[in-house]
């Protein structure tokens, strides 16, 4: 079967990998000149299935409002009256309660743990190097309220039988000795030893090169203009490089997916959530973390990528604006320095912004959407790197007419039609 994958970020590339592994003729179209140039480029690096959770959480609306009043708030939103954003926010608010949080977290956990297992298999099957480190994750809490939220997450992990430990501040420092010089308060932590980290952009580059040796064709610098269809079936896409015909088309375009699908009557509730990252050289290995760190107070994820430290976080509902605000860089550096004051060359930190394609409830949107030959692999939010291999294998199974290895309940577009 001839298959067309739209998008060459980490989700699109892993989709191409699983389709090619099944013997399909695979082509990939991407508007950028190379792989992994958008959200996959500078994300936090965490491969964190145990930590995977929706942004829609109990108390989050109030926390967002309080944080928005601060000059260096980790969460901001535009006051411009955008109907698309307002509709997304309304759907998001409906998910910000304990019952929905539990349901959505369990759905994301189901995908994320399957995905890490798929990634480990991919690593064994391919010669890819991308600063992979299977050291676990430490979720840090600075207040009692954050610790209570951690207890809620721990109960969901216990229900799934996922290894974890609830720690106090002293125990957190013992697990990650580099925290011994931290100036920020450490009220507690959640230790997730099964998680890992890696550089998703390096992964994209390596997988792209390997896929070319397997016969996958790439169309870089190619903008998708519209999906081709006739008689209720999608037959490929029209692009800036001409028509791209296929028996099956997978949309893995992140934030560009809703606009492409809208003319077909497919309403994809995905909105860009802007985030920032810094990448700084490590000067003293002993004073840099070995684990990936989630600073829950500042909503900053910190990962060690070889000889570099990557920190990413913050959330801005400002549409597709990618402006780099120097104040946000300073905020990130301040948050990371409060945990790791020494051993990192913050003066050489590079700065980046990306747009996370967020669904209002958290899980990605996978599979069919009412048109024959059309499949979705969309809306991964801040969990794209963590969930890419799992969701891509699921979609490849569906393209092949196979039942996926995990339950698709709550992971398809149908869940939004029911509301």
Automatic annotation (TrEMBL):
Gene Ontology terms for molecular function: D-amino-acid dehydrogenase activity; sarcosine oxidase activity
Residue ranges of domain FAD dependent oxidoreductase in the record: 3-398
EC code: 1.5.3.1
UniProt gene name: soxB
Protein name: D-amino acid dehydrogenase small subunit
Keywords, sorted A to Z: Oxidoreductase
SUPFAM superfamilies: FAD-linked reductases, C-terminal domain, FAD/NAD(P)-binding domain
Name of one Pfam family that matches: DAO
Similarity section: Belongs to the DadA oxidoreductase family.
The protein's enzyme class: oxidoreductase
Coiled-coil intervals, chain numbering: none
Superkingdom of the organism of origin: Bacteria
Annotated GO biological process: D-alanine catabolic process
PANTHER family, alphabetized: D-AMINO ACID DEHYDROGENASE, SARCOSINE DEHYDROGENASE-RELATED
InterPro entries: FAD-dep_OxRdtase, FAD/NAD-bd_sf
One GO location term (cellular component): plasma membrane
């Amino acid at each position: 079967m001839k298959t067309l994958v739209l998008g060459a970020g980490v989700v699109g590339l892993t989709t191409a990998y699983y389709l090619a592994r099944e013997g399909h003729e695979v082509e990939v179209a991407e508007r950028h000149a190379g792989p992994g140039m958008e959200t996959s480029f500078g994300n936090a690096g965490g491969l964190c299935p145990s930590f995977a959770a929706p942004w829609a959480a109990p108390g989050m609306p109030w926390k967002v409002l309080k944080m928005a009043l601060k000059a260096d708030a980790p969460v901001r939103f535009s006051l411009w009256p955008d109907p698309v954003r307002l509709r997304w926010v309304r759907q998001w608010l409906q998910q910000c309660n304990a019952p929905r949080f539990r349901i959505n977290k369990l759905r994301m956990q189901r995908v994320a743990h399957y995905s890490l297992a798929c990634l480990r298999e991919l690593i064994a099957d391919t010669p890819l190097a991308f600063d992979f480190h299977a050291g676990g994750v430490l979720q840090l809490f600075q207040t009692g309220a954050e610790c209570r939220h951690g207890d809620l997450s721990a109960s969901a992990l216990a229900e799934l039988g996922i290894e974890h430990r609830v720690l106090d501040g002293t125990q957190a420092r013992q697990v990650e000795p580099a925290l011994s010089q931290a100036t920020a308060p450490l009220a507690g932590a959640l230790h997730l030893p099964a998680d890992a980290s890696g550089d998703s952009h390096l992964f994209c580059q390596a997988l792209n090169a390997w896929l070319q040796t397997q016969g996958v064709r790439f169309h870089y610098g190619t903008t998708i203009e519209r999906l081709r269809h006739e008689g209720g079936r999608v037959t490929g896409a029209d692009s800036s490089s001409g028509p791209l015909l296929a028996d099956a088309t997978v949309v893995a375009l992140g934030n560009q997916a809703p606009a492409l699908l809208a003319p077909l009557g497919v309403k994809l509730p995905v909105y860009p959530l802007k985030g920032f990252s810094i990448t700084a050289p490590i000067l003293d290995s002993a004073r840099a973390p070995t684990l990936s760190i989630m600073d829950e107070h500042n909503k900053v994820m910190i990962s060690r990528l070889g000889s570099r430290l990557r920190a990413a976080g913050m959330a801005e509902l400002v549409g597709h604006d990618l402006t780099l605000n120097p104040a946000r860089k300073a905020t990130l550096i301040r948050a990371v320095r409060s945990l790791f004051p020494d051993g990192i060359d913050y003066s050489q930190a590079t700065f980046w912004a990306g747009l996370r394609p967020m669904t209002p409830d958290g899980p990605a949107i996978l599979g069919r959407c009412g048109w024959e030959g059309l499949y979705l692999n969309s809306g991964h939010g801040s969990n794209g790197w963590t969930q890419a291999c799992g969701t891509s294998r699921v979609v490849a199974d569906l393209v092949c007419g196979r039942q996926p290895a995990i339950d698709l309940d709550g992971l398809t577009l149908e869940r939004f039609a029911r509301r």
